[in-house]
User: Fold this.
Amino acid sequence: MVDTPRLTREDVAHVAGLARLHLSDEELDLFTGQLAVVLDHAADVALLDLADVPPTAHAMAVINVLRPDIPGQTVDREEVLAAAPSVEDHRFRVPRILGEAP
Amino acid sequence: MTPPRSALGLAAAIRNGEASAVEVLDDYLAAIDAHDGEIHAFNLVTRDAARAQATIVDQLVASGGDPGLLAGVPVALKDNLCTRGVPTTCSSRILDGWRPPYDATVVTRLGEAGAVMVGKTNMDEFAMGSSTENSAFGPTRNPHDTSRVPGGSSGGSAAAVAVGFAPVALGTDTGGSIRQPAALCGVVGMKPTYGTVSRYGLVAFASSLDQIGPLTTTVADAALVFDVIGGHDPADSTCLDRPAPRVLSALDEGIQGMTVGVLTEFLEGADADVVARTRQAAEACAAAGARLEEISVPEVRLGLSAYYLIAPAEASSNLARYDGVRFGLRVDAEDTMAMNTATRSAGFGAEVKRRIMLGTYALSAGYMDAYYSQALRVRTKIIEGFERAYRRCDVLLGPTTPSTAFPIGAKVGDPMTMYLSDVCTIPSNLAGHPAISIPFGRGDDGLPVGVQLLAPALAESTLLRAAAVIEAAAVIEAAASTGGGRT
Assistant:
C-alpha cells in the first residue's frame, strides 16, 4: 500500500507538462482543487489491501488475436494526407524538432 | 412535430411499399428544421446524403429488391462515429473540420441494412461528461424541459430520439453515456456486452470500456438495431469472434421462472421517486412470473472511484494522438513540441484537460501502484461480486440514475458531483456486461425516470426479454395514470 499525499499545484503543473498541456495560473488553481477532490474520493480504492487480487485490464479474456498476413485494401493515402494540417512530398510536415538552426 | 414511430413499423411499411423512404425522411427533416434550433441535438444534418440514401431504398423496393431490416429508417449518429468524408468532431475544437477517410463498421452495417443516416449528434467533448454541456458547440437541451440537461455524453442522440428527430440513434457508453441520457430523456438505451459490437471507427476514449449501442423508442427497436450492428469484425481485435446476435426473435418469450435481483446498492443514493419507480418495475416482473430477490453486491460501491482512475488513464493515452501533426487543429509554434502543446491547450476543453491530467497522474511514476493498479484490482472484485449475484439471479434491476434530469449549469462547476450521476451505470462497463435503461413513468417533477436492467456477459437475449416486460408495464402504468389522474 502506498501513501497518497494531497495533490499540490506543483504536481498539476508537472503532470500538465507530461501531457503537453499549458495551463494558465487560473486553470492551475482551479484544476488543483478539482483533481484533489477526485483523488480524495479515490482514496477508498487506494487504501484497500488487494495484494492477493489479480488486476483486470480487460473484462473479456481475448488474447493473441491474429489474422492471415494477406495484403488487402486499406485507407487511401491521399485521403489521409488531405486531412493533415501541413503536408510536403506525401509526408506530414512539422516545425523543427531539435534545437538546430532553422 | 413528428410523433415517435418505431423503426420496426417504419421498416415494415417501407419494405412492403406502404410508405416511401423519401417521404418518411422528409417528415423527420421537417421536425429537425422546426425544433433543432431550440434543442441542438445535431452538430450536422446530412440532408442531401440522406435523401440520396432514401431514394436508393425506394428504388430498390420498386424493383422488387429487399433493402434490409432497417429499410428507410432514419438514424442519427453520435459525432464520435467516423463517417467517410463527413465531418466527425467529437464536439471538440481539436477535430473541428476533420473528415474521416473511412466509415465506422457500425455505419457500414446500418447502411447495408437500408438505414438512412440523417446527421451527427452533439455530445460531451470526446464523450467525457454526463450532461452534454462539455460540447465545444454548446449544450443540447432536454426536450421534456429545455432548461434541463439531456444527460450525456450521448445527449444529442437521446434528445433526437425523444423529440422525434429520428426513430433510432447510435450512442457510445464508456461509463453510462447511452443509458444515463436515455433515462433523462425518456427513451430506451442499451449498452451491449463489451466486444459484441465492433469499435472500428469509433473515436477512442477508454478502449477497455467503450461500447456502441442503440437509443430507440422501444425495446424491440433496440433488439433490432443490436442484431444489425453486432457480430464479429476482423477490423477490431477486441471484437468477439462469435456469430452475429439474433435477439429480436426471442423478445416475446417472457420471463416466467426467471429470478430478478433488486440491487440494494443502486437504491441507496437514489431519490425517493426514482426508488418508487424501480420498485414498481420489480413488481411488474413479479406479475409476469419472475421471482424477486433483494441482492447486495457491495463491491459496486467502489466502481466510481475505480472508473475515474481507469477511464482517465486510458484516455490520457488515447488522446495523445491529438498533437497537431496528422489531422485536426494545429496551432503553429517555433518547434514541434511547442506546437503540440499549443495545439492541445487551445483544442481541448476543460473537462478533457482534467481527465487527461488525472489519467497522466494515475499512471505516473510513484502513483501508478496506488491508483491505476489498485483500480484494476477493484475491477476484478466487481466482476467477482456480479458473478456471485448471477449464481442466484438471471438479471439485476435498479435505477439508471439517482435523479431525474438536472438544470443546465447546476453541476458544471463541481466535477465530482457530475461524476456521481454515473454511479449506477459504471459497474457494467467495468465488468464488460450488457445493461439497458427503460423509461418507467415520471418523477415527482414530471420528468422521465429510467430503470436499469443488468445481465451477465452475452446474456442480451435474457436482458431484452425482461426489458420488454418492464416496457409493457410502463405503458399500462402511463395509461392508468393519465386516465385516473394519478401521477
About this structure: Chain A touches chain B through 57 residues (CB under 8 Å).
